Amino acid sequence: MTKPIQQLIKIRREKLEKLRQLGVETDPPVYKRDHKINKVKQVGLKANVAGRIRGIRSHGKLVFFDLQDESGQIQVLASETNLRQTYKMVKLLDIGDFVGVVGQVFETKTKEITIKAKEITFLSKSLHPIPDTWYGLKDKEERFRKRYLDLILNPKAKQILDKRWLIIKAIRQFLWQQDFKEVETPVLQPLYGGTNARPFTTKLNALGVDMYLRIAPELYLKRLVVGGYERVFEIARNFRNEGMDKSHQPEFTMIEFYEAYADYFRMMELVEGLIKYAAKQVNGSLVLEVGQDKIDLSGQWPKITVDEAVKKYLNIDWHTISDDEVKKLLDKHKIEVPGVYSKDKALFTIYDHLITPKLVEPTWVIDYPQEVSPLAKNHRSKKGRVERFEGYIGGKEICDGWSEIVSPIEQRRRFEKEQKNLKAGDDEAQPLDEDFLTALSFGAPPMGGVGIGIDRLVMFLTNTWSIREVISFPLMKPAKQV
Q1: What is the pLDDT of residues 311-360, one digit of tens each?
Q2: What is the mean pLDDT of residues 422-444?
Q3: Whether residue 385 is found in the same domain as residue 457
Q4: In-domain check, residue 175
Q5: Backbone angles phi and psi of 402, in degrees to 5
Q6: DSSP-based three-state secondary structure for 309
Q7: Which region holds residue 305: left if phi is over 0, alpha if psi is between -120 and 50, else beta?
Q8: Which of 46, 47, 128, 129 has the most CB within a 10 Å radius?
């Protein structure tokens, strides 16, 4: 019969006290190891490793235990003959404890690489027993609340996060190779902006003013371009006071980058190269599984205008469909238009709900309505359209970018339209940022910019379609206190 958890904790505390009585230093400040476990392969090697005990098996005067570090796992043999007095310490070890091991590598009769311990150094006691199998932490809510246990017990969880860090490294390498500078901009801002979203508000006591957590770094990155930086990027933690679902969290990570003298075609070319580079670095291939589909990222990705997409998939002519017909479509599919209603905004919402899931192969959708793109430059040849693009793979939006507005006059006009929407009840409309307009008034070069959701990109490159799986510590509703 399984002992109650409090009793198991009591037993481990008693073992810790016995270790102290044996004269064992139970909280050493440091341990100098010579090897990561995955490098210990050669028979006869004198190895010095450290890690967490993941399993213990006793056979008379022999104890076998599995030792795990970040790189892998190895079997250790502890015998009374070799360890003499310190063998008493071995008998007080538990699964979850940390130890250092020095010994010679040999191969067992079953061909398992094993370290025959000559020295074992106690490093830390696991006072709370770790669930002995994956089934001990099966509840998803519990997994994410106790993410540290999830990482110990579930190799796949760690593999996903390992890939996340590798993807971020690959992004940096790609942009550095393109001569982009990595920069930092404020998280705490006197005015939010850079996209349409609801912000988190807070109070800065030192100045007695309201502040906002950033919803995007865009307007500050553009200020840096005004200041003379021609290629900049930031991997930014953003905060939007909105809903949570399988692909959205209120706290999330994006990369945004901006290039002077570039337009949206150049930015599409850059993003395409970046995603291919990251896929190759992380998965070693440009053919990836996305959901149930196999998708080939190679070749030049096709471009389709938003008008063409609506015509192709819904047989709707954007410019001739009546407002009444649009409203009937909304009712039929139970789609709500966020903020203040307009025909263009409604059609964009219909497109977003009904068409984007069908964009499975890598696709650029371009030339969006001005109405839904307050920071994008007017199209050079299409009235009412802007030079904006979104990238879709596997039916998911991967990025959003455009040729940037650099005229303070045009940007003010767009901001003022957003203000009308804000007063009419659109709580996602952008505020008018006078300081940003002042920056533009000193002159800014033509530029292109783009934002890519890092969490979404990790989901795509690991074929993991829950955002909580790809974030170290996803936001959770506070657990009820007992």
Answers
A1: 999 999 999 999 999 999 999 999 998 878 889 999 999 999 999 999 99
A2: 86
A3: yes
A4: yes
A5: -170, 170
A6: helix
A7: beta
A8: 47
Residue ranges of the alpha helices (H) in 146-217?
Answer: 147-153, 155-177
CB atoms inside a 10 Å sphere around CB 144: 19
Residue 328 maps to a domain: no
In tens, the pLDDT along 137-166 reads 667 788 898 999 999 999 999 999 999 999
The answer to whether residues 256 and 379 belong to one domain is yes
What is the rounded CA–CA span in Å between residue 288 and residue 463? Answer: 8
Model pLDDT, residue 482: 42
- Looking at the fold, whether 259 and 366 belong to one and the same domain comes out as yes
For residue 84, the enclosing domain spans 5-130
Instruction: Examine the fold and report which residue of 130, 164, 188 is the final residue of a domain before the chain moves on.
Output: 130
Q: Are residues 190 and 64 in the same domain?
A: no
Task: Give a yes or no: residue 379 inside a domain.
Answer: yes
What residue type is 366 in one-letter code? I
Query: For the CA atoms of the chain, what is the radius of gyration?
Result: 29
Task: Give the CATH number for residue 292.
Answer: 3.30.930.10
In the predicted model, what is the mean pLDDT of residues 348-377?
Answer: 94
Tens of pLDDT, residue by residue over 40-83, are: 999 999 999 999 999 999 988 899 999 999 999 999 999 999 99
Alpha helices in 22-136 (DSSP H): 80-83, 87-90
Residue 168 shares a structural domain with residue 278:
yes
Question: Tokens 């840096």, residue?
Answer: 224
| N- to C-terminal Cα separation, the chain | 26
Q: State whether 262 and 386 are in the same domain.
A: yes
The residue length of the chain stands at 482
Could you tell me if residue 481 is inside a domain?
no
pLDDT class for 133, splitting at 50, 70, 90?
A: low
Query: Whole-prediction pTM value?
Result: 0.90
pLDDT at res. 172: 98
Say whether both 106 and 182 belong to one domain. no
Measure the CA–CA gap between 431 and 420, rounded to whole angstroms: 10
Can you tell me the distance from the alpha carbon of 435 to that of 191, in angstroms, rounded to the nearest whole number? 10
What does the alpha-carbon distance between residue 17 and residue 19 come to, in Å, rounded to a whole number?
Answer: 5
List the CATH number of the domain containing 102.
2.40.50.140
Q: Which of 65, 98, 130 is the last residue of a domain?
A: 130
Alpha carbon distance 233, 452 (integer Å):
11
| Residues 159, 98 share a domain | no
Domain count, the chain: 2
Long-range contacts of 81-87, Cβ-Cβ distance < 8 Å, separation of 24 or more: 82/116, 82/117, 82/118, 83/117, 83/118, 83/119, 83/120, 86/119, 86/120, 87/61
